[in-house]
Amino acid sequence: MKTVYTSCMRHGFLLVHKPKGPTSHDIVAQLRRSLGEQKIGHLGTLDPLASGLMVLAVGGKALKVVELFNKLPKVYEAGITLGTTSTTYDSEGVLEVQKPKAGWLPPDDASRIQALIDDRFLGKIQQVPPAFSAIHVGGERAYKKAMRGEDVEMQARETTISVCKVTGYSFPMVTLEVHCDSGTYIRSLAHDLGISLRCGGYLSSLVRTAVGEWRLKNALAPDAIRWIDVVPLKDILTGFVSRELSTSEWGEIQHGRPIEGDMDPEVPFIAWFDGLPVALLERSRKSEGMLKPRKVF
């Protein structure tokens, strides 16, 4: 009898254009309903006030490879309002107009702001995340403590900003194009830029335009997405180091047993069989010259 493959057996990634307003959880829940698939995850959230590209993993096999994409760089278009601060570093917080510090004058053109950014906010930098964030502090989300009025001591962390370009300026509004590591807080960048300019500032708009090689221009609105829009897993994984398994090797991998081979321990390694990705392999720590299955798709 011929096997019939239904749409619900498809595994892969979706490029979604998240609108401003709903949470990332709302978008995932909407796609679970419309596609009839509960196993959907993402490669990074966006705040409700942000819009732009979300990359979703659809199907259990796709969820198993999300870890390979967790550290992809991001690109954002950020709007910053100068002269005002926010308790959350964005427009959701309590806003307070600032009295400019002594010696401060509004920059007369974008070049002065760009020069300051080039001096202080490019390359590897130390960044303190906002207290209103999902980072765990003392076993609890920081924002929960902050909402109760508790003092939350956030630890600085290193991140890398490779590009931070002023694309528009008319006081009090500055727009930036930012290329950065995963985990960079654009809200903190806006806040810190305001401090450096001696007038305060907060993030008033944010659009994510790229995640790794994926671009917002190729994403679809949540309401428009159908099963046919899921990019198959075999297309997602073609760029990784790979190895084609023999029939006997695939049999060993299916039973969780190692096979002969070696690999760079720092490079993800995809095993293929019959033209499909079937497993994520890693170097065996117990047996030299052997590869063991880390995850079988």
How far do the termini sit from each other?
A: 24 Å
Name the structural class.
Answer: alpha+beta
Radius of gyration: 23 Å
CATH architecture of the largest domain: 2-Layer Sandwich
CATH superfamily of the largest domain: Pseudouridine synthase
Q: What overall form do the CA principal axes indicate?
A: elongated
The name CATH uses for the topology of the largest domain is Pseudouridine synthase
Q: What is the overall pLDDT average?
A: 87
Oligomer: single chain
Count of all domains: 3
What is the count of helical runs?
7
DSSP strand content: 35-45%
* Number of DSSP-assigned strands: 19
Low-confidence stretches: 1-8
Helix content: 10-25%
Major β-sheet, in short?
10 strands, mixed
CATH class (first level) name of the largest domain: Alpha Beta
- Helix and strand run: EHEEHEEEHEEEHEEHEEEHEHEEEE
